[in-house]
Amino acid sequence: MTEQRNEPVRSDARQNRARIIEVARDAFAASNDASLNSIAKQAGVGPGTLYRHFPTREALIMAVYRHEVERLGAYAPELLAEHTPMESLRLWLDRLAHYGRVKHGLSDVLHALTDEALAGETYELVTGALTLLLRACEDVGAIRPDTDPDDVLLVLGFLWRISPGEEGEARAARLLDLIIDGLRFGAPASAPAPASASASASAR
To answer: Are the C-beta atoms of 47 and 36 separated by less than 8 Å?
Structure first.
């Protein structure tokens, strides 16, 4: 009986935690000065609830960071199940761009907090997802063969330097178009057109 009474509480707590992370992700992408109280208000919880889950600002930042990286890793196979390889790659890159804006807003704190183990874990998750997408595109002849995911990720480093906001989003989209065009150059077959900006937005 006790477990049955406590289960809704645990479920509510999980939902609150997930909601706080989602709201914090968007808040930090918009401004690295977003306050914890404003995040709690947007998430529909009291400050006490937020602090029970994340006792410090740094704890919340690391939770957002881990959530985004894990979501990036899981997003690639989900996309391939519903879209063509080339569309999946572009939609994933748009998601990576959003992650880049979040990371831009948290860069100073993350630099101080992220140890080598976590950085390695992050890199492996991202490159693993990117490798899956690139190989799927190669299999249908949509991009040049033997594309190195480490090279592509190195080029994509510009996403970490683009400031948040509409102008930054537009610039990221233009630069991603250039990346896609470069990957398609020398492809054995004509690649399907990348997903539109509206489709990319709805996928997020």
So the answer is: yes
Asked whether the beta carbons of 133 and 85 are under 8 A apart, the reply is yes
Report the alpha-carbon distance of residue 166 to residue 157 in Å, rounded.
Answer: 19
DSSP 87: H
Q: Which two tokens stand for residue 173?
A: 């989209």
What SS3 state is found at 188?
Answer: coil
DSSP secondary structure letter of residue 196:
P
The topology under which CATH files domain 1-55 is Arc Repressor Mutant, subunit A (1.10.10)
Looking at the chain, the domain(s) classified CATH 1.10.357.10 span: 61-203
* Ramachandran assignment for 141, one of left (phi > 0), alpha (psi -120 to 50 degrees), beta (any other): left
Q: For the structural domain made of 61-203, what CATH number should be given?
A: 1.10.357.10
pLDDT, one tens digit per residue, over 121-158 is: 677 888 899 999 999 999 999 999 889 999 998 888 88
pLDDT in tens, 28-75: 877 777 889 999 999 999 999 999 999 988 889 888 888 888 888 999
Which residues, including other chains, have CB under 8 Å from residue 182's CB and lie 6 or more apart?
none
d(Cα 34, Cα 54) in Å, to the nearest integer? Answer: 15
